[in-house]
Design brief:
about 350 residues, mainly beta, Neuraminidase, 5-stranded mixed sheet, 4-stranded antiparallel sheet, globular
């Protein structure tokens, strides 16, 4: 089955509003108000970049990495593949099959006890949790999660504030549980009372102002972006300014790495019957286009699910700015994380 799926994949492969807490951290649970500033493209006379087709793929769901060899791991059509910087693809972990559910997002482990370049994926059918996918395709359960709700987010802590563990979110209505999992599968609950969040989570680098080291998570329904601290406090960074609502609002996130050669990548999954039915491609923005739009290393990119409109969030000592930096095809249906390749 994988051979056919791999062949299909390989053949197919051809800051508007700012809610930064510039006056101090803001906790939605305590009802504190956030201060705000505004930065628009019009004021800066910067033209937005455009998401364009990086590669055609059957049913892309998520991208993660890069691995140490520069490749990006692609989850598509229930399997995994590796995308090279030139857009070519090859099968990866051929024995892997999607462990259930519509959106089993993935992340790639950094060097350390999780195993460098090992892929971790959400398991959405019982027993729910996280699975470990080795390069030879062996799949084993890392952890079973018992918190009620839908497991809908995964991200490694590469900064260290969460003990360099794997962070997973479980949404139940208007509240989210955040679990931290070590490489032996031991689980610690960070909070059971975070706001509703989902999608492409990311842990902020130390350079991200007062939110450095926090888990950054978007809420597509309200369109806002939260920081969740290692102590479990949820803090409003600001409103994305993007259209919001189910299958429309901000979902994907990723931090622009240092080095100046990054190309942003985002899965655009075909979703028939949706207002934004998708293209079945991986979208990309080259490093030159990112730079021309004013994006720099350390910025957070967040993209809406409907149409992949994209903001950059920049936080420093004076607070945060959020501004529009990219647009996508109107029919695009963004999913998962924003990953960064080494560029072509």
């Amino acid at each position: 089955m994988w051979a056919k799926a791999a062949l299909a994949i390989l053949l197919a492969v051809a800051l508007a509003a700012c809610g930064g807490s510039s006056g101090g951290r803001t906790s939605p649970s305590t009802g504190e108000a956030a201060s705000a500033s505004t930065s628009t493209l019009a004021a800066k006379r910067i033209q937005p970049a455009r998401w364009t087709t990086f590669v055609h793929v059957s049913r892309p769901l998520d991208v993660a990495g890069p691995r140490r060899d520069g490749s990006i791991v692609l989850a598509a059509a229930g399997h995994l593949a590796l995308l090279a910087p030139n857009g070519s693809a090859r099968p990866f972990a051929s024995a892997y099959r999607s462990p259930g559910g519509e959106e089993p997002y993935i992340d790639v482990a950094p060097p350390g006890c999780f195993g460098a370049d090992v892929v971790y994926a959400l398991r959405l059918r019982p027993p729910q949790g996280v699975v470990r996918v080795s390069a030879d395709g062996r799949v084993r359960q890392l952890a079973i999660l018992s918190a009620p709700g839908l497991i809908d987010g995964i991200a490694f802590d590469r900064t260290g504030a969460f003990g360099r563990r794997l962070l997973v979110t479980i949404n139940a209505g208007r509240r989210t549980t955040v679990e931290a999992i070590d490489c032996r599968g031991h689980i610690q609950t960070i909070t059971q009372h975070a706001p509703r969040v989902e999608g492409g989570l990311a842990v902020a680098p130390a350079s991200f102002g007062r939110f450095g080291g926090d888990l950054i998570a978007p809420d597509e329904i309200s369109g806002v972006i939260y920081a969740i601290t290692p102590g479990g406090k949820s803090i409003l960074i600001g409103a994305s300014g993007l259209p919001h609502g189910q299958d429309i609002g901000v979902e994907s996130a990723g931090f622009v790495p240092a080095g100046g050669r990054a190309e942003a990548l985002l899965a655009d999954r075909r979703t028939p019957g949706n207002r934004h039915p998708g293209d079945d491609v991986v979208l990309g923005i080259g490093r030159a286009a990112l730079a021309a739009a004013g994006v720099r290393a350390g910025d957070l990119l967040v993209a809406g699910e409907g149409g992949t409109l994209t903001d950059a969030v920049r936080c420093g000592r004076a607070g945060c700015q959020i501004r529009r930096v990219a647009v996508g095809p109107r029919i695009a249906h963004g999913e998962g994380h924003i990953a960064f390749s080494v560029g072509r």
